Amino acid sequence: MPKKRNREIFGRADLMLGANHIRVRCEDGVTRTGRIKGKIKKRLWIREGDLLIVVPWSFQDEKCDIVYRYIRPQVDWLKKHNYLSQ
To answer: Exposure of 30 by Cβ count < 10 A (0-12 exposed, 13-18 middle, 19+ buried)?
Structure first.
């Protein structure tokens, strides 16, 4: 779950831009350019439509870091327990 005190929010991968950048549609209604952090760059494959946890940058609100990707069973569980509005 996103930690509000760390400014984490849900986002949906919208478009792959290349070079570890993805356009992300966030739950607050803003479309941001997301950057896959080096820690998860080699471990996760992110595709369009995936549910993500992102952290918006404090100095540029139109950019964010991607910190986690949910897999299909996790997304189903979140929908079942009403954590997602979609």
So the answer is: middle
Rounded Cα–Cα distance for residues 46 and 15 (Å): 10
Q: What are residue 19's DSSP bridge partners?
A: none
pTM for this model (two decimals): 0.82
Which residues touch 73 (CB under 8 Å, ≥6 apart)? none
* Residue whose entry in the numeric block shows the structure tokens 């540029």: 60
**Contact (CB, 8 A) for 11 and 27:** yes
In tens, the pLDDT along 6-40 reads 888 999 998 888 888 899 999 888 999 999 877 77
DSSP string, 29-78: S-EEEEEE-HHHHTT----TT-EEEEEE-SS-TTEEEEEEE--HHHHHHH
Confidence of residue 86 (pLDDT cuts 50, 70, 90): low
